[in-house]
Amino acid sequence: MKKVQLTLLFLLITILGSAQEEAKKAEFGFNTNGKIGFGKLVQNEMVNLNGSINSGDMVFFYRLPSGITFSTGVGLLAFNANGVSSGESYALNQSYLRFPINLNFSLFILENQLDSKLSAYGGIGVYASSLLKEEIQTIDETFKNRNQGWNAGLGFNIGLRFGVTKDINFGIGFESQSDISKMKKNGVERKLKEINIINFSFEFKL
To answer: Which residues pair with 197 in a beta bridge?
Structure first.
């Protein structure tokens, strides 16, 4: 996880150092995205579980003429995994509610040749997360838990954005995230680590 985050941080610094021209005007709008990838659940009194991640966010953004973008909104994340406890197999499904705050920087690539339709971006973000629902299914029964606490996390992202129309962009990128605090409730301590995901987004300017 640390190597991935250091690599993304280096790429972000490279993007920041390469910017020479400013965007023509400030922009405001919203972004919807879908994400798929993998992560690891770390919880006391159980082995670490590797599982799949499916996530999506809707955020509002404000992009300054310099290319710096502030964004915040709401997101949902699903973590699914299979494990074995006391010789019995089980399936784990968790649903998280998230509130991200992001700081990104973008610059155009071949601005004149491509008429400002291709840009690279990178950034850093923090998020608050709550485990809304947890379901543990065995052969014989199903256990359900709700509202299992809050924690916070940190993430890095980098990607490309393509101009579809004047007011609509399509983006594809990579994100690396990890909870930086534990979610605690009823004696259970848990957090998600090493979340590595590919994201696909549509950006609408207002």
So the answer is: 37, 175
For the chain, the 3-state helix, strand and coil shares in percent, each to the nearest 5, are 10, 70, 20
In the Cβ-directed half-sphere of 90, how many Cα atoms lie within 13 Å?
19
CA dihedral 39, 121, 33, 132 (to 10 degrees): 40
CA distance 178 to 124: 12
Q: Which residues fall within 8 angstroms of residue 18, CB to CB, at 6 or more apart?
A: 107
What is the enclosing helix (H) or strand (E) of 96? Answer: strand 88-108
pLDDT in tens, 31-82: 999 999 999 999 998 889 999 999 999 999 999 988 899 999 999 999 999 9
Residue entry with tokens 């990838």? 37
What pTM value is reported for the model?
0.85
Distance CA 147, CA 192 (A): 16
The DSSP annotation for 161-204 comes to EEESSSSEEEEEEEEEEEESS-EEETTEEEEEEEEEEEEEEEEE
